[in-house]
Amino acid sequence: MDGTDRMTRRGLLGAGVSAGVAFVAAADAAEPNLRATPFYAAPQMTLPYRPLRAKSTDGTELAVQDWGHAEGPEILFIHGVLQSHLSFERQVRSDLAERFRMVTYDLRGHGDSDKPIGRDRYLNGELWADDLAAVIAQAGLRRPVVVGWSLGGLPIGNYLMKYGDARLAGLHFVDALTKRSRDYAGRPEYRGLLPATASPDLGTRIDALRGFLRACFKTQPSEADFERMLAFNAQVPQHVLSHIMAGVPLEADDAYRAVRVPVLVAHGAEDALLNVSITAFDRAVMPHARLSIYQDCGHAPFHEMTERFNSELAAFVLQCQ
C-alpha cells in the first residue's frame, strides 16, 4: 500500500467517524433521552413482600422478606442448606397470608443475603445466633413462632444457647438438624451428595446438587418447581458450602432442656437425608414437644404435604398466642 492509498484510507475512516458523530448528534437532537436510556432497562416490579436488610453483628447483611397480614400472629421461617426463602412459597403465598404475618430470610451465604469470604464467618455458631436475633429485632417481630427446616435448626439451637427463648412464642422443628451425630445420618447411598456440592470441580458440584435436591423429596416436585429450586440452590458459592461442610458447632442439649415455649416437631417418615430417629432426641431434651410424623413423606413436608402442614402450622401458632 503506497502513501496515496494510506491517505485515502485515513480519509475514508475519518469521514466514517464524522458521519457517525453527526448521526448520533442528530439522534440526540431528535430524542434527547435516547442515549440516556439503557439498552436493557430493568422492569419496574411490585414485590409480593415487604423487603428488608438486617445487619448481623459481623456486618453481614441478610435479605429479609415480610409477607402477609402485618398485624397477624408472627411466623419466622428458616430454610435449609443450599435453599432460600423461596422454599416456603407454598406457605407465604397461601391463605395463611390472610391471617398471619410471615417473615422469611436467606441464611448467610444463601439467596440474596451477603456471602462473606472467610472460614470464621461460617464456623462461629454465635454468628448464626446473631443473624436470627438481628432478623427478629430489625423486622420488629414481637414474639414469633420460629420454624426451622433442616439446617434451619442450627441457627435456632445456637440462638437458644446465647439468647434463650424469652423473645419467642414457640418453636417448630421440621426435619431439622438439632444435633450433629452420625446416629442421625441419612441413607448411605445419599451421604456423599451434600459434601460433593462443595467440590472444587464445577461439574461434580452440579451433579451433586441435582442429586441432593432430588433426595429432599419422597414425592418429587413438578419439573417447573424442580428447575426453580435448582436455580436458587445453585446461587450458593463453593466457598460457602466448603465452610459449612466443615461443621458449624451445634451442642445445644442444655439449651433445649431449658425451653419453656411450646414445641412442635414434624418429620417425614421417609426422609433420606436426616433420619427420623432424631425426633427421639428432640423429645428427650424437650419432653413437652408434640410430635407429628408425615408418613410416605421425605425431607420437605411443607412442600410434599402442603395442606396438612399449613393446617398444623396455623393451629400451632394460634396455640402459642
Keywords:
321 residues; alpha/beta; 14% strand; single chain; 12 helices; eight-stranded mixed β-sheet
Percent of residues in helical segments? 25-40%
Over the alpha carbons, how many angstroms does the gyration radius reach? 25 Å
Helices and strands, in order, run as: HEEEHEHEHEHHHHHEHEHH
Average pLDDT value?
Answer: 90
- Distance N to C terminus: 89 Å
Describe the fold and architecture.
This protein has 321 residues and is of the alpha/beta class. The protein has 12 helices and 8 strands. The protein has an 8-stranded mixed sheet, with helices on both faces. Helix 3 packs across helix 4 and helix 6 packs across helix 7 (223-233). The longest helix is centred in the N-terminal third of the chain and has 28 residues, at 3-30. The chain is globular, with a radius of gyration of 25 Å. Residues 1-35 have low confidence and may be disordered.
